[in-house]
Amino acid sequence: MTQTNYPYEISLEVAFRDIDAMGHVNNAVFFAYYETVRIKYLGEIMEHSGLMGTELLDLPLILVEANCIYKSPALLTEKIYVGTGISRFGTKSFDMLYRVQGEDGRLIAYGKTVQVMYDYISRSAFPIPDSVREYVTRYQGAWQPPAYP
Best label site of 26, 41, 94, 132, fewest CB within 10 Å? Predict the structure, then answer.
């Protein structure tokens, strides 16, 4: 399993551009961390499900909700892990959970986003294909989403 115990994970080093005047990662930057891991994971899912064209920008979805709960500051040059997993499938939407943790194992932040499968040409949502559900179920295995307070 990964450092975060989430199905998909990336590691990052906190860069100078991420730091605010208080000396820690700015709150808005966490959404960029979520975006980075989300796009990588969803790109893999869509590629293996046959839904994506040749470009990563061909992802057929739209983000409709995002939240982040901050628990501990992340500091310049610190190595962090950003984990994600799909916690719920609806008919056209799905939830992704996130965990950001320090190399020392402490919880830095956690959150959730909601995505909707979306056709940008017809400007309409469409049902999640079975191939996506099946790939995620195989990839994530027995992972159980955490119950955060």
Answer: 26
**Residue 35 burial by Cβ neighbours in a 10 Å radius (0-12, 13-18, 19+):** middle
Task: Please count the helices (runs of H) and the strands (runs of E) in the chain.
Answer: 2, 6
Q: Give, for 95, the enclosing helix (H) or strand (E).
A: strand 93-102
Q: Which domains does the chain have, with CATH numbers?
A: 8-138 (3.10.129.10)
Which stretch of DSSP H or E encloses residue 93?
strand 93-102
User: Among all chains, which residue has been given the structure tokens 């309409």?
Assistant: 124
- Residues 76-131: pLDDT tens digits? 999 999 999 999 999 999 999 999 999 999 999 999 999 999 998 999 999 999 98
Among 65, 67, 63, 102, residue whose Cα is nearest residue 82:
102
Distance CA 25, CA 16 (A): 9
Both tokens of residue 12?
Answer: 């990052």
Residue 52 near residue 43, CB atoms below 8 Å: yes
Give the SS3 label for residue 3.
Answer: coil
Are residues 128 and 118 in contact, defined by beta-carbon separation less than 8 angstroms?
A: no
Q: Which three-class secondary structure string do you get for 27-51?
A: CCHHHHHHHHHHHHHHHHHHHHHCC
